[in-house]
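Need tokens for this chain, all 315 residues.
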Amino acid sequence: MKISGVTVRQFFEDGRDKLPLELVGGEKGLGRVIHEPAINRPGLALAGFFRHFAFRRIQVLGMAENEYLLNLPPARRKDCLRRLFGERIPCVVITRNRRVLPEISDLAREFNIPILRSPLVTGHFINSATIAMERLAAPRITRQGTMVDILGVGVLIEGKPCIGKSEAALSLVERGHSLVADDLVLLRLSDRHVVIGSALPSTRYHIEIRGVGIVHIPSLFGVASVRDEKALDLIVTLREMGEVENGGIGLDPLASDLLGVKVPRMIIPVAPGRELANIIQAAALNEKLKKLGHDAAKELDEKLMAKMSKGAPAK
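Here are the structure tokens for all 315 residues:
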């Protein structure tokens, strides 16, 4: 799978604490693009075989590659590394916190190729880095609204400004549910074709309540009141009562197309006296029941149709 737009800088900043990574050289090349999310160990390339070399990927030098290089004569080692760096690779990662060879440092400056280092064992690093790259490379969009986790159901609350999205989310948090994002929700497509919602780094864990201002949710309700990300299961659109037509009993459910995935959608009228938190919670739990095979609207319709059929005169 080819990707575009993921730079070494993005990978480094994302993995600085998670992998963890440190930049040990070639900082001028942080703008280089990583074109494939898979990770490559260039053992064959160091041995001189460059046919089918995956130069578009992050190159990892583990214990085996380092030991191989250390056992080469200095001139041969420098030649091998020069050929590797000359293949327009995006960056090199050295695992197990191994010492950076002087030849690598010199070539990093010459070719402007970043050198990163991680204390992780090579296999563990490759697994974690692959997941990180797939996440960074996933298709994504931003959507205005507020997202909450209601007993395992990810709900995106949307609607025009001042309609009460954040206030409804705050009421849900008070009931023990969790805030995912407020104002802007970042949506990405996972490798399992599921839409995942999260907050922008600058607004994570915060919510804006008109008349109160910015509130830091974990400080008021504890760390269990927030989630870093959540799969999106339901979109709730808030509209003024006069803007909503009679929605029936739910036999013709709505859906929105997000990143190629159909997400169930519900329009809830807003009016004075309506407790939105109760309604949104009921909608989320009803959606959870539908996924378990229990659709109340269909079951009621079937019961009514069966009763009407029994009462109909025989032909």
